[in-house]
Specification:
Strand content of chain A: under 5%
Helix content of chain E: 55-70%
CATH class of chain A: Mainly Alpha
Oligomer: heteropentamer
Shape of chain E: elongated
Number of domains of chain A: 1
Helix content of chain A: over 70%
Number of helices of chain A: 4
Order of helices and strands of chain A: HHHH
CATH architecture of chain A: Orthogonal Bundle
Strand order of the largest sheet of chain E: 1-2
Shape of chain A: elongated
Chains: A mainly alpha (106), B mainly alpha (86), C mainly alpha (198), D mainly alpha (225), E mainly alpha (222)
């Protein structure tokens, strides 16, 4: 009955679910979770091909990509939030120029 | 043993799906979402390389994908921070 | 006729060029679907069928190409075997650590092959080594460009750069802005004067 | 016994899958190119060119010989190199548009991720050790990834130009090592083992230091307080 | 068509494993010419552009700073050497790598300037160079799949079939884009509007020589 559930079908299912999830979810953080599901599917596929060293390295590198995603998303989120507070960068530039101006004694 | 051709087809399907999603997917006006969507296509290519037994290329692809993502995110966040409209 | 002129004008704008290139390349790739494609089976550097080595239980599975370490060369079908005196020796070479790893477990073929020696090293360093020179020069040039730009422009290095220059530039730019403001003021005043005169 | 494993002609699997994989790659490339043609914003086009690079990998890999795998590695690294240089040009152009003179400080980030304090040393050590064992392009990319995560997790801000130049010089010298190794292969064939190690070590150092320097660039971007 | 028909008798080869550089009179001539130009460029100084400023009598001198000068001279020399190498190479994939190197160095030569317009066109050209990865490497791979070899010697003796022609066409589009000929000239033309003329000159020369060489390759393999 359940004999079709083996490592290959599970990995395929994980990859398909992950791919659909990454594309259809709207929020970036939800997408990152689905990316990790996708990468888990790839990991299982590599294991089912019996390349254990590649699988080991994938297992180490996947968290790295998730960290990169998280860092970038948090940073961009912060930037967008602060842009909402003052959404004209021109003012900042003018402010800098004025500062320099007073320093230069012009 | 399982059928190897299925893996190639799955890899191609993932790559096609990922590239379609990158170009026309929901919410791709936001560069962040577009960059995350390329990950799907990259996993599809990894699967093809795995099936073709190019494991060294697979390792290098996995490592460089991270670096490329890092570079793209740097460009995106820097541009957003400067308020540049590109 | 005016249409052509418009087209030429569009072509003169650098922003449109990548998109034009993309369209042309895309159309050409679609032409590929009406051309009969097929793999010529007589290739160089042939590899065995996928997973066949893994199923046979070889210790350095996807990259086993025969040969014994420092005893006999492995199998490499190069384009010009007469140009490479030691063809196949790198293919069969393994470092002592790699040999240890090989004895430990049959599932580490990729890392054994990637460590010095092995088939890919033979191709990348020996028979097609010139490609690798170019390729690593491309990486080096790209990095020189990127790091030069980063150090000089995009990374904040204010405390190390001579600040004077910065200040000078800032003064110049503010000078320019002041000039422009003055100019626009003058124009506005002129307009005003004209109106009043009328 | 092993020699019999390696066939005379390309195995049936590769030749039967060739057209499928090639056409798949062409379709992916077509989708990416049409996307580029329809897109107007510069940064979006930069992301979409990544897709075209992936399509190139499929087209090259479809040949299914050891040579095609050896050709994938340069292709990958070329794409990485170009995307790095071009994104830097984009940033520099936008900075010039905004303001000519004054320099720009990225916004510091206030986050406290558990993984950024505990894991990096371990992961970085594993990755670097493994990368040194692998050597070559792959090892360079892997060890570089380790250096990236290590650098990202530190809180010290940036490096002086002198150190940046120094790391660049290391990669230049290792490039020379690899060139010497390559010349040895043909001038003094009896020392092939020495030249193999020169080449492998040189390439490892070169790629790893380059990618590590990318990490240092990122260090500025994701600077935390 | 055989190699001998086009460039004269082969004077000699430099065998580097599978990659054989071959020298015949045509290639040798191109090789020496581009090396001479590179030598000239490496010893020449840059000029200073003088722009009249708008709305006043002052003029704006756009000179090349010393650091910038060194960087651009280095990249220009590399560009010359890469072009010279592409002239004598005897391998298809090797040629595409030379092409990619020339492309990235061309971007680098103008990347150090301060004009926004020039940087913009350098960026657009860079996008084309990135897209060119597909036609260059992909075209070489298609030819490899069709014939089983990448060496120009072998390719010259194999009769052309539709797949080879398709691969060569794809490569042609790649070379056209990367060297900026006919419809794609605007991305490169804008790059010349910057001080430092000898270094700008090498961009021009390299694309000229590459086109000549690629046409010769096309005639050889088809």
């Amino acid at each position: 009955m359940l004999e079709f559930i083996d490592i290959t079908t599970v990995s395929m299912a994980l990859m398909i679910i992950g791919a659909i999830g990454v594309v259809l979810l709207k929020k970036p953080l939800d997408k990152v979770i689905m990316v990790s599901v996708l990468e888990a599917g790839l990991f299982l596929a590599i294991v089912s091909f019996k390349y254990l060293d590649v699988a080991f390295l994938t297992a180490v590198l996947d968290p790295l990509s998730i960290i990169v995603f998280l860092l970038a998303l948090i940073k961009i989120n912060n930037v967008r939030k602060s842009k909402l507070d003052d959404h004209s960068s021109l003012d900042k530039v003018n402010y800098i120029i004025e500062n320099e101006n007073s320093k230069g004694g012009k | 043993m399982f059928n190897l051709a299925i893996w190639v087809y799955l890899g191609l399907a993932l790559t096609l799906f990922g590239s379609l999603a990158t170009v026309w997917g929901p919410g791709v006006k936001d560069p962040v979402i577009r960059t995350i969507n390329t990950e799907v296509a990259s996993v599809g290519v990894s699967l093809i390389l795995l099936t073709y037994n190019s494991t060294l290329a697979l390792l290098t692809l996995i490592a460089t994908t991270i670096i490329v993502t890092l570079i793209l995110f740097r460009a995106i966040s820097r541009l957003e921070e400067m308020g540049a409209d590109v | 006729m005016p249409k052509i002129a418009k087209l030429w004008n569009k072509l003169a704008n650098p922003k449109n060029i990548p998109r034009l290139f993309a369209v042309i390349l895309g159309l050409l790739l679609i032409v590929g679907f009406i051309i009969p494609m097929g793999l010529n089976t007589d290739q160089i550097y042939i590899r065995p069928a996928p997973q066949s080595q893994m199923d046979a239980g070889l210790a350095i599975a996807p990259y086993d190409r025969g040969g014994e370490v420092l005893v006999s060369p492995g199998v490499t079908e190069a384009q010009y075997p007469e140009n490479s005196k030691n063809l196949g020796w790198i293919n069969s070479y393994m470092t002592p650590i790699a040999e240890l790893l090989k004895a430990l477990s049959p599932y580490f073929g990729t890392s054994i092959c990637a460590s010095p020696g092995g088939l890919i090293d033979e191709i990348l360093y020996y028979t097609r080594g010139f490609d690798t020179i170019l390729e690593s020069s491309i990486l080096m040039m790209a990095f020189i460009i990127a790091s030069w730009l980063a150090i000089n422009f995009t990374i904040d290095r204010k405390e190390e750069r001579d600040i004077k220059e910065d200040v000078k530039r800032a003064i110049a730019s503010s000078d320019r802005i002041a000039n422009e403001v003055e100019e626009s003021n003058r124009k506005a005043r002129e307009k005003q004067a004209k109106k009043e005169f009328r | 016994m092993v020699a019999s494993v390696i066939p005379q002609f390309v195995p049936a699997f590769y030749s039967s899958m060739y057209t499928t994989a090639l056409y798949g790659g062409l379709i992916v490339a077509f989708i990416g190119l049409i996307g580029i043609a329809m897109e107007k914003r510069d940064i979006q086009i930069l992301i979409l060119t990544d897709l075209v690079g992936l399509a190139m990998l499929i087209v090259v890999a479809a040949v299914g010989t050891d040579l095609s795998e050896a050709l994938i590695l340069p292709g990958l690294v070329v794409e990485l190199a170009e995307i790095m240089a071009i994104s830097e040009i984009l940033i520099s152009r936008e900075m010039r548009k905004v303001d000519e003179g004054t320099s720009f400080t990225p916004m510091p980030l206030k986050i406290d991720m558990e993984i950024m304090t505990t894991a990096p040393n371990f992961i970085a050590l594993i990755l670097i050790a493994y990368g040194v064992f692998l050597s070559g392009f792959t090892g360079g990319a892997v060890a570089g990834g380790g250096i990236v995560i290590y650098v990202l997790s530190r809180k010290v801000r940036g490096l002086p130009i002198f150190v940046l130049d120094g790391v660049g010089a290391i990669s230049g010298i290792s490039w020379c090592l690899w060139i010497i190794g390559f010349i040895f292969f043909f001038l003094l064939p009896q020392y092939w083992l020495l030249s193999l190690f020169l080449a492998a070590l040189g390439l490892l150092l070169k790629v790893a230091s380059k990618i590590g320097l990318i990490g240092i660039l990122m260090r500025e971007e994701y600077g935390r307080k | 068509m055989l190699i001998e028909d086009l460039g004269g008798n082969i004077l000699g080869t430099i065998p580097l494993g599978d990659i054989v550089l071959y020298l015949n009179p045509l290639h040798l001539f191109l090789f020496v010419t581009i090396l001479l130009f590179t030598a000239l460029i490496s010893i020449s100084r840059t000029e200073t552009q003088v722009e009249a400023m708008f709305g006043s009598l002052d003029e704006n001198k756009v000179a090349v700073g010393l650091k910038e000068f060194k960087q651009r001279r280095f990249l220009a020399i590399i560009c010359g050497i890469a072009t010279a190498g592409a002239m004598i190479t005897g391998d298809l994939f090797n040629f595409t790598l030379f092409m990619a190197l020339i492309g990235i160095v061309n971007i680098g030569i103008v990347s150090a300037v301060k004009q926004v317009d020039v940087l913009n066109s350098a960026y657009q050209y860079g996008l084309i160079a990135m897209m060119c990865g597909l036609p260059l490497f992909g075209g070489a791979a298609i030819i490899l799949a069709a014939t089983g070899t990448l060496s120009l010697f072998e390719l010259a003796s194999i009769p052309a079939n539709p797949m080879m022609i398709f691969g060569a066409l794809v490569m042609l589009v790649g070379v056209a884009g990367e060297s900026g000929i006919a419809p794609f000239f605007a991305s490169k033309a804008e790059m010349f509007r910057t001080p430092g003329s000898p270094f700008i000159l090498i961009i021009h020369l390299s694309s000229l020589f590459i086109i000549v060489r690629f046409v010769e390759i096309l005639l050889t393999i088809l």
